[in-house]
Design brief:
Order of helices and strands: HHHEEHH
Strand content: under 5%
Number of helices: 5
Largest sheet: 2 strands, antiparallel
Distance between the termini: 16 Å
Helix content: 25-40%
Structural class: mainly alpha
Shape: flat
Radius of gyration: 22 Å
Number of strands: 2
Length: about 140
């Protein structure tokens, strides 16, 4: 684990400093003024609390907006679930553009990636590494 952390720290020290500018990352709920102040000037829209940008505040305050409960797993031993893999490649459905396709075709279809850009990934890596380093120093 030490070597992984050292590698991450070394990697972040060699990244260009411009990778973590405020323009390269989404604004936080506080930066957008969501639920800031008393009374807050910008409230979240309850009809779309789980959509951006309101979700930046809402997911961190979920128990304040919808009923939640802590569910204990119990004190007994855990049990393994049996694996029963299914071939879903021929499962058919209607795609967002109205075409009837199967899972196999969907997976081969070019689509916009959900992966973060290099700048977002390196910025996230820097903040995670800093948090890990702080936690290690304080423990």
């Amino acid at each position: 684990m030490k070597y992984i952390m050292l590698g991450i720290v070394a990697m972040t020290l060699t990244l260009p400093q411009s990778a973590a500018t405020a323009e390269d990352r989404p604004k936080t709920a506080a930066e957008m003024g969501i639920m800031q102040g008393s009374p807050p000037k910008r409230l979240i829209d309850m009809s779309k609390w789980d959509k951006g940008p309101d979700n930046r505040w809402a997911f961190q305050h979920i128990s304040e907006i919808i009923p939640t409960a802590n569910i204990s797993r119990g004190s007994g031993p855990t049990s393994w679930l049996e694996r029963t893999p299914l071939d879903l490649s021929d499962l058919r459905f209607e795609s967002p553009d109205g075409e009837e396709i199967n899972v196999q075709k969907m997976l081969k279809k070019p689509t916009r990636t959900a992966l973060p850009s290099f700048t977002e990934a390196t910025s996230s890596l820097k903040s995670t590494t800093t948090a890990c380093a702080r936690e290690r120093v304080s423990s």
